[in-house]
Amino acid sequence: MIHVPIDAITKPGIPIGDYAMFMMMFAIITPAIFCGSVVGHGRFNFLVMFTICWSIFVYYPLVHMVWAPHGLLARLGAVDFAGGLVVHVNAGITALILSAWVGRRKDVHSQLNNLSWVLIGTALLWIGWYGFNAGSALAVNDTAVQAMLTTTISCSSAMVTWMLLDRYHFNHVTLAGVCNGAITGLVAITPGAGYVTLGGSMIIGIVGAIVSQYFITKIKPHLPIDDIVDAFGCHGVSGIWGSIATGIFTSHQISHLLPNGLLFGGDLHLLLVQIFVTLLTIIFIGVMDIILIKLLSIVLPVSIDNEKLAAIQSK
């Protein structure tokens, strides 16, 4: 934005200052997701430096690749309405790698969460998500309304699905599970919020809850990671599913800018593109994250000693 007047108008007709602030909202929330995965047992100094470097070498290049008209993934046909790849897959993969690098806590029992704060936080996320998804239409129009409706339906469907799964597997429903379900539905619909039908958003939310809960309850316990907030389970897994599902449930009647997805008579092209760009995104994030962590770990310790962590939590 050097030498660009703050009141200059972007192509969608939005002052560049307003547009920049909107995009910075995405930029600041993304590292908050993966930092939560290692909070308490990752070194603060390392996380600060990693976040700065990650923003420069991972986040902003990925934003350009996906959302710039001439970006690498955009030229391949990538569809990401409100940040499924840019925010959630990005943060989820980074959380997984950071958690694996920091390692598991030993002989340290996780303190119980304050469920009141969990509920309040989830409610704020749900409300704020309308700003992400509907706001990504960059106008008050039918696309913004569609994004609000699909966001609501996906979130609600995922929340109910998670409750039913908890009841089936564990014979009881937990508030934490309800909140996780809501988040997975919000994440899953993000890539296609303005492009898919209402029925499609329901299926996206239901499947998002199923795959995320399966990872968190069945796969994660066997992995050498300690993702405290299930950032990969909720954001990474649901984000990957949502990105792929956009190639299935996109409707040309909803968005005339895109062809029909597989379910509405389109061929395999859009689905295969979404699978391909999702894989490329995962590879790019994974490689860059590992390089950054390796370089920073030369000069900064990554994790807190388990003995020191236990002493801190006992106070």
Supply the key terms.
67% helix, 315 residues, globular
Describe the protein in words.
It is a multi-pass membrane protein. It is found in: Membrane. The protein is mainly α and 315 residues long. The protein has one domain: Ammonium transporter fold (Orthogonal Bundle). 67% of the residues lie in helices and 0% in strands. The protein contains eleven helices and no strands. Helix 4 packs parallel to helix 10 and helix 9 packs antiparallel against helix 10.
SSE string, helix = H, strand = E?
Answer: HHHHHHHHHHH
The counted number of beta strands is 0
What is the name of the CATH topology?
Ammonium transporter fold
What portion of the residues fall into strands of 2 or more residues?
Answer: under 5%
Number of domains: 1
SSE layout and pairings?
Layout: H1 16-37, H2 44-67, H3 72-76, H4 84-102, H5 115-133, H6 142-170, H7 175-189, H8 198-219, H9 231-249, H10 269-297, H11 306-314
Brief summary:
The chain has about 325 residues and is mainly α. Helix content is about 65%, strand content about 0%. Its main location: membrane.
